[in-house]
Design goal:
Length: 368
């Protein structure tokens, strides 16, 4: 088999050395694609001629069926149809209905399912869906994909490192970590030059809270109304919306104090009374509040209060980091635009360009 027919065969039965991650196409997916491009009648005829109708719809086709099907389809289609069919099968070997069903049945839901589009690949900010349609991505995966929803440079770097040394425990020096530190140090504001990697934003918030509590010796934390910090146990406890906290018995935590997002006096009072020694906030409240920038004066006043009472100020820049609030080139973080520095900076989302790496940067003084 050669040329376009060979491409089709590889789309149905991907070569293991090229795509170890992929299964063979299911009958259901092949049928879905043929229905779309050839119409129901031609699709039925093709699938029957290779006896594939006897297979369960969710079963991947075997090597012999794959060859038969590829030959039959190639013989009955013009080159344009063949290219489209191959392209669609390369997008997914699992049918739309099966993929959605697997998700609904087996993925524990966190928020509402968006099954209207099943994205399978991207070019920059354009998302290509399993059904061949193309969409302009205005969501950018909660801001994680600000280098584009597929980025060849990022992909190459990930593949190179995965093929060299995929991971290394943190007790050992790791050259990619050293290389990375050299790069990020030049981007960090103020004296923030100590780092700790996490796997998710919520985890990074948790670690920031733990460091602040250990450093101050005080368990009290001040968080803002309208703020969102994630869904891990600690991060959700300091997230304002009670609906996120109540199911976990975190609605009335005595160590968390929510204050209005412009209420400097409440912050000052809690710090002065010694009921809290940590303040956490987003400079632009995102997930829960829409896009609500905090007042610059408020951030500066909270900084002054924290300094006066030996409290730790945490900025959660998961959403705002990496140029999203920049006023001019070189401003990577919102705290630079706000001209107010935190003691701990939580960064994530676009930090990894879609790959899960989150971090906290902290000032050296907190280590002492
Ligand atoms: C400001 C902020 N912090 C923390 C998080 C938690 O992120 P994740 O749930 O991905 O861990 C989010 C998520 O959107 C966020 O917007």
């Amino acid at each position: 088999m050669t040329g376009p027919a060979h491409r089709l065969l590889q789309a149905i039965r991907p070569a293991r050395h090229l795509h170890p991650e992929r299964l063979c196409a299911t009958v259901g997916r092949i049928e879905e694609v043929l229905d779309r491009f050839l119409g129901r009648k031609r699709s039925r005829a093709l699938l029957e001629s290779s006896n594939s109708h006897e297979l369960a719809r969710r079963m991947p086709v075997g090597p012999a069926q794959a060859r038969d099907l590829a030959s039959a389809i190639a013989a009955s289609c013009d080159p344009d149809e063949l290219a489209r069919i191959s392209d669609m099968l390369e997008r997914s070997e699992i049918s739309t209905a099966e993929a959605i069903d697997l998700h609904i049945r087996h993925k524990i839901p966190v928020s509402g399912l968006e099954s209207d589009i099943v994205p399978v690949r991207a070019e920059g900010c354009w998302l290509h869906a399993i059904d061949g349609r193309c969409y302009l991505d205005l969501d950018s995966d909660y801001g994680a994909a600000n280098l584009g929803a597929s980025n060849a440079e990022l992909g190459l770097a990930l593949m190179n490192q995965a093929c060299e040394l995929i991971s290394m425990k943190e007790e050992r020096v790791h050259i990619p970590r050293a290389r990375f530190l050299k790069t990020i140090l030049e981007m960090m504001p103020g004296a923030l030059d100590r780092f700790y990697w996490q796997n998710s934003n919520g985890e990074a918030v948790d670690k920031a809270l733990k460091i602040a509590k250990a450093f101050t010796g005080c368990r009290g934390v001040i968080a803002l109304e309208g703020g969102f910090h994630g869904r891990t146990h600690g991060a959700v406890a300091v997230t304002h919306n009670p609906a996120y906290r109540e199911p976990f018995g975190l609605a009335q935590e005595d160590w968390v104090h929510f204050v209005g997002s412009d209420d400097v006096r409440a912050v000052e009072a809690l710090l002065a009374e010694g009921r809290a020694r940590t303040v956490i906030m987003e400079l632009v409240q995102g997930e829960e509040a829409g896009i609500r920038p905090l007042d610059r004066g408020f951030a500066a006043e909270v900084r002054r209060s924290c300094d006066a009472h030996g409290a730790v100020l945490i900025f959660d820049e998961v959403q705002t980091g990496f140029g999203r609030v920049a006023e001019k080139p070189g401003q990577w973080f919102a705290c630079q635009a706000y001209r107010t520095l935190p003691d701990i900076l939580v960064i994530g989302e676009s930090f990894g360009g879609g790959y899960p790496v989150r971090k906290r940067g902290q000032t050296p003084t907190l280590d002492t």
